[in-house]
Amino acid sequence: MARCKDLLGKAFGLLTVSHDAGYRDGNNYRVWCCRCACGTEVNVSAKNLLRGSATTCGCRSIKRASLSGREYRIWTDMKTRCFNPRSNRYGRYGARGIIVCERWRDNFRAFLSDMGPCPPGMTIDRMDNDGPYSPDNCRWATNVQQLRNYSRNRMLTLNGRTQCMSSWGRELGIDPDRIQARLASGWSTERALLPGPQKRQRKDHAATALPLG
């Protein structure tokens, strides 16, 4: 049975099975084409995959650079929530159309090169909550920074259109922090999204003063 086991899509170390290579090894085990995290494709026998004797294409630089696998785990988790409908977080990511950019999707080396090592206490954060995981939309951030970014991506509805606060800010030319401050002060969505400073109107008492004498 192991010789015929379907391994499509499964991960073994840095290798992810992409498709059947179309032939079998000398022991009649199916041979699978696997993509390594470094971007290299290699054909590996199911026997070696299942026994754990094949976990990379042979590269070693990825292991040294990935700080005991932290960045690699972040990379794989990022792809899982975007592309695996079985993930319990798929509804908040892949189902909403959030994707991993083509440059990063199958190439951990490119991801690590663009992002660099993850500083202690940080994880990956998308600056635009509606945008993809990509070099121009991602950063390493603390939990506090991520919570602040989450508030900037609060969904607001105006004139029948709904989009996040940061998107409204870009469209209307208003700093999202100003919109957030207005809402926190009790302003309505319509008033908070008005461009420019909103000054409180004052009554002109001089105009209503009684005439002297």
Please render the helix and strand layout as text:
Elements: E1 11-12, E2 15-24, E3 30-36, E4 41-45, H1 46-51, H2 61-65, H3 70-83, H4 102-105, H5 108-115, E5 123-126, E6 138-141, H6 143-152, E7 155-158, E8 161-164, H7 165-172, H8 176-184, H9 189-192, H10 205-208
Antiparallel strand pairs: 1-2, 2-3, 3-4, 5-6, 7-8
Detailed description of the structure:
The protein has about 210 residues and is of the alpha+beta class. It folds into three domains: about 1-60, no CATH class; about 60-150, no CATH class; about 155-195, no CATH class. Helices cover about 35% and strands about 20% of the residues. It is built from ten helices and eight strands. It has helices spanning about 45-50, 60-65, 70-85, 100-105, 110-115, 145-150, 165-170, 175-185, 190, 205-210, and strands at about 10, 15-25, 30-35, 40-45, 125, 140, 155-160, 160-165. A four-stranded antiparallel beta sheet has the order 1-2-3-4. A two-stranded antiparallel sheet has the order 5-6. Strands 7-8 form a two-stranded antiparallel ribbon. It is elongated. The termini are far apart. Mean pLDDT is about 80; it is low at about 200-213.
